[in-house]
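Hey L., structure's done. Input below.
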Amino acid sequence: MPKSFYHFNPKTLTYEKVKLSFKQVLKRVGWVFASGFAMALIFVWIAFYFVDSPKVKILERENNELKGEVEYLTSRMEVMSDVLLDIEDRDDNVYRTIFEADPVPATERYPQILDDRRFDSLSRSEAYVLLKDANKRADKLTVRLAAQTKSLNELEKIVNNKAEMLSSIPAIRPLKNMYSITSGFGRRYHPVLKQLRAHTGVDITAPKGTPVYATADGTVSSENPGSGYGIAVVINHGYSYQTLYAHLSKKAVRAGQKVKRGQVIGYVGATGLASGSHLHYEVIKNGQRVNPVYYFNVDITPEEYNKLLESSKRVNQALS
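Output:
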């Protein structure tokens, strides 16, 4: 700082030396420092609010990553919530209705969740770990929900087709007033060879021309079971069931025709390898012959069924 100051005197037209007091010098110095401090504050303010430091940029990037993770997780939770709503709706309005059960109370299905502030003071690294764990759990939950939804879809289809399925399962006797079985299912003596052989159905003695009834809804098959069965009708019922009616005197249906349970499909005869007028009746489940007696359960009393069951157990000579 200069030690001497001059000012121009217009009266004398000369520069005159000005002597400053100590107080004036301090004042001038103070103004210089104040101006410098003010300029420094302005520069700091500009740098703080308008210029990002490397650390701030790193924090912003991490915040954006966390925000993206949270938004992604939130969208997944919304999808899972929609799936759960669908499952809950089916539970209340389909399955519980079938079994005449009351819907789950809302207080049990949506319990009050207490306010939890455990996550208020999480560090950034802890937040990343929690988000990673939450995503893993969401992955597993998504797979489980998908599997459960598929299962419910299959059950719903079965429920919707329940009446059709029940009417397609053999359940009545193929002849009216049928109270005994001449020859049952299992090993029986062949009428010609006189040897024990597998008998794949039941034989019921009846006069020629007695009406034979379909034991379940289905479609008449074009399948020919073999010449030994004589005139025969095979019905495909769906749901892995077939029935066979053999040694008929004539048919009352044609291949491809839809039939209902209790409909006349033919008449008793003695065609094929038969030793007398009778009906040979078989039930086929998944391609395997099963005991037809176990499928007489709709048009029969317990006492009548017991008599049929006992008569079917006799190891005697088959009629075919």
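The chain has a mean pLDDT of 79. The first strand starts at residue 5 and ends at 9.

-- N.
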